[in-house]
Amino acid sequence: MTIEKYIRTIPDFPKPGIQYRDITTLLSSAEGLRISVERIADHFADAEISCIAGIEARGFIFGTAVAYKMGLGFVPLRKPGKLPGETVSVAYKLEYGEDQLELHVDAFEDGANVLLIDDLIATGGTAEAAVRLIQSTGGNVSGFCCVVDLPDLGGMDRLRAHGVDCLALCEFEGE
Ligand code: AMP
Fold first, then answer.
1. pLDDT confidence of 68, banded at 50, 70, 90?
2. CATH number of the domain encompassing residue 131
3. Which of 20, 45, 54, 112 has its Cα between 20 and 30 A from that of 10?
4. Does any ligand 1 atom lie closer than 6 A to the CB of residue 134?
C-alpha cells in the first residue's frame, strides 16, 4: 500500500514554484492515518525508544498517535514563547530568515532514547535543530521519521550524519 496516494499536491503554495505536499488528505483518511502510524510504530518497535518528540505543529499529530500506539509518552518541541516552564531554545535558518524551537529543560530523562517525528523533511534544517535541542537537554535521538521526504533537498542525509536511524513513509521529487 503506497502512502503517496493519500498526499495531495497543491502547486504554487505558499508561493510560486513550491509543490506543497498536503497531509490533511492523509489525516482525513482512516486507512491512510492508520497505515502511517502502524508503519512508524512497526519500524521502531525494537529500537528501545523511551519517548516520542514531535515538532510543532504537524509533528504533534503524528507524534501523539505513534506515542499512543507504542505505549509511550509525548514531548512537544514548540515555537518560541509557547512553553510555560523553563526552556532551552535553538535558532535555525529557513530559506528566508530564521526560526526557533523551544523545549522544556526537564522534558527528558538523561540518556532517554527519543524518536523525533515531523510530517515532512525538506532541507532538514528544522529536524537538525530539533536534534541539537534534544541532545542539549540530555536526550539521545535514536530515530527520526516523517511521512514525506523530499530527497532532492538532502534533509535525510543531514540527519543520518548525526547517526540517527531515519524513516520516511514516501518520497516526492523536487521542492
Ligand atoms: P526543512 O526545515 O527545510 O526540512 O522544512 C521542513 C518543514 O517545512 C516541515 O515542517 C514542513 O511542514 C515544511 N515544508 C517544507 N517544504 C514543504 C513542502 N513542499 N510541502 C509541505 N510542507 C513543506
1. very high
2. 3.40.50.2020
3. 54
4. no
Q: Is 67 helix (H, G, I), strand (E, B) or coil?
A: helix
Residue 118 Cβ inside 6 Å of ligand 1? The answer reads: yes
Output the furthest CA–CA distance in the chain (Å, rounded): 44
Which residues are catalytically annotated?
Answer: 58, 95
CB contact at 8 A, 169 and 33? no
The separation between the first and the last C-alpha atoms of the chain, rounded to the nearest angstrom, is 24
- Residue range 30-48, pLDDT digits in tens: 999 999 999 999 999 999 9
Residue 121: helix, strand or coil by DSSP? strand
Number of domains in the chain: 1
Tell me: the pLDDT tens digits for 13-31? 999 999 999 999 999 999 9
- State mean pLDDT over 74-97: 94
| Ligand 1 site, residue 99, Cβ cutoff 6 A | no
